[in-house]
Amino acid sequence: MKNYVWRIFMLPFFMMASTLIVAQKAFVRTGQNIRISEPVAGNTYMAAAEAFIDSGIAGDLMGVVGSVQINARIRKDILLAGGKINLNAETGEDVRILGGDILISKFIKGDLLIAGGKVLITDEAIIGGEVIVAGGDVTIGGTINGDLHIVGGKVQLQGRVIGNLSTHSGKLYLQGSVDGSSKIVAQSLTIGSEARFGQEVRYWTNEGKVEFGTSLSSNATAIYDNNLRPAYANVNWEKGIKAALMTFMILRILSGILLVGMLIALFSRFFAARAGLARKYAGRSFARGLTLLLALPVLSVLALVTVVGIPLGIIGFSAFTVFALSAGAVTAIVVAYEWAQMKNMSPASGKIFLIALGVFILLRLVGLIPVIGNLANFILAAVALGHIFRHYSQEGPVPTPKSAQEDGDLV
Questions:
Q1: 409 is a domain residue
Q2: What pLDDT is stored for residue 52 in this prediction?
Q3: Which residues are CB-neighbours of 183 under 8 A, at least 6 positions away?
Q4: Are residues 253 and 355 in contact, defined by beta-carbon separation less than 8 angstroms?
Q5: What's the CA angle centered on 371, arms 14 and 10, to 5 degrees?
Q6: Phi-psi category of residue 59: left, alpha or beta, with phi > 0 → left and psi -120 to 50 → alpha
Q7: Based on the domain organization, do 207 and 344 belong to the same domain?
Q8: Which has more pLDDT, 307 or 279?
Q9: Do 285 and 220 sit in the same domain of this protein?
């Protein structure tokens, strides 16, 4: 189970790394709201607040979204992170999702890995491979041809599991069937009238033994195994803290990636018009950015010590928080446009988004280096923010894109 959870938490890193390869065949879409209404021959990468997939995609679908509705077939893998994800279409290979509210209602040929707050696999869903779910409120219907592994708070199993079942949950309600063997660890366990177990069931609950009634087949037995109790009772705080920190880092990276896509979509003309100036006036930009990053919190503190200045202090701290949270994304975008200007790339090209993602991930990795890494990130952020504030009112010519297409070109 540890390997499964680790794979789920590593999903965003695999997704980000995948966006940096095979760029020439990638369909990139970014923006506030996007809709794919025509067939896509290759892979699709997207970053948006809201997305609708209404036409088939021949390759992989990968992205970071606020919400997404998938209504057309995806022939290969799906790797998504977002708030609300509704998969209402067939998938040709594996599906890996990290989200808040997740709905699966169609056929998935390969494996399914989910980490989410609320997870619903409907009665119409058919999963061809293994299913791994980590969630707060989990309801599983349909048919699962492989093994099912669940870690959840409140879990309802209403469908059929042809493989084996392994679950570690708070409240578990079983109304479906398991053809293989079952290992159950739960705070409480309820066996419904339609539950069926085809092979041995080993279980432990905080409430003690449970009556299985007619749910056991002629070849099945239910064994209350007290050896399973440590898996529930013993809390490893060190691992819990590490998992929490890793989750925080992942969410921070995901939010940063979404911010990169949003800023490029909304302010691409601004960044493109000023490409090259960050390198030319790096010293001046650094001085301006350093003043901003250091002076703003100091002035905010001074304002807070006076009754009259309290509102200004609150505004100053709020502004500083916004700058601090967006510094990584802004730095990545500025570097991407500087690189594009050096290489004479079209500023409207979807490659800008891929370059910015690569820089953003690289900055996060560099930040893991003690002292030197953080110092390098601080200097680059100061240059980028200073560059923005030095030129925010400058009217510069916007480079003419090599293609008449808008952001989201096939690159």
A1: no
A2: 94
A3: 164, 165, 166, 167, 202, 203, 228
A4: no
A5: 15
A6: beta
A7: no
A8: 279
A9: no
